[in-house]
Amino acid sequence: xxSPRSGTSLRTYAFIDRxxxxxxxxxxxxxxGDVPIAGMAELYIEMAPGNDVFRAADIALKAAGVRPAxxxxxxxxxxxxxHSEQQAxxxxxGQAVLDxxxxxxTDRIAPTIASTQFITNVHPYQAQLxxxxxxxxxxxxxxxxxxxxVAPAAYISVAANEAEKAASITxxxxxxxxxxxxMFLSGTESEVQSARDAAVAALEEIKGQQA
Length: 211
Known about the structure:
With 211 residues, the chain is of the alpha+beta class. Helices cover 36% and strands 28% of the residues. It has six helices and eight strands. The strands form two sheets. A four-stranded antiparallel β-sheet has the order 1-2-4-3, sandwiched between helices. α5 (155-166) packs across α6 (189-204). The longest helix has 16 residues, at 189-204. 44% of the residues are buried. Its main location: other.
C-alpha cells in the first residue's frame, strides 16, 4: 500500500526474532555491510520508489541501536536490512521508519509463494551444477532438495530462518533481492519435508495487502 503522505509503497516488512546459524552466516558472507551473527534479531524493509531506502536507513540508524547489513537499490525497489542483539531495538527502529513515512506494518504486501520444487535423490551432475553458483554450503548427491520462490523477495529470509529452526537441513543458497526471492535447502527427505512445512507456515502467518 502506498502512503498518501509520502508516496512510498511498503513492499516488505519482515521481522526475524532470532537468526539461525546458517542463515546468519549466509548474510555475513554475502553482505556488503555490518556482519550479523546467530541469535540476533533482524528486520527487512523493502520500499518503492527504491531511493526511499536511503531515507529509511537514516531514520532507522538514528532511532535505535541497530546496524545495517544491506542497503540495496535495484531497478524498482530498495531493500534495507538492520539487526541487533536486542529485539526491542530492531522493533523500535522499524517503527520509527513506519511513522516517518506514514505507514503501518499491515500496509506491507503479503508474501505469495510463486513456486516450490521438492527433489529427492539429487543426481550428482545436478548437484555439481548448483554448487558452481551457490554461496552457502555444498549440495551433496543423493540428498533431497527443496526450492522455494517467493514474492516480494525479502520474505524468503523469513522462510529460510523458520525452516532452519524446524529441521536439520543445509542452506545451499538464499536470494532475497529482485522480483522473486529464492532459497535452496537440502538434507534427508524427512528433514527437508519438515523444513518445507515450516517455511510455508511462516509465510502464511504474515498478513498484508494483496499485490
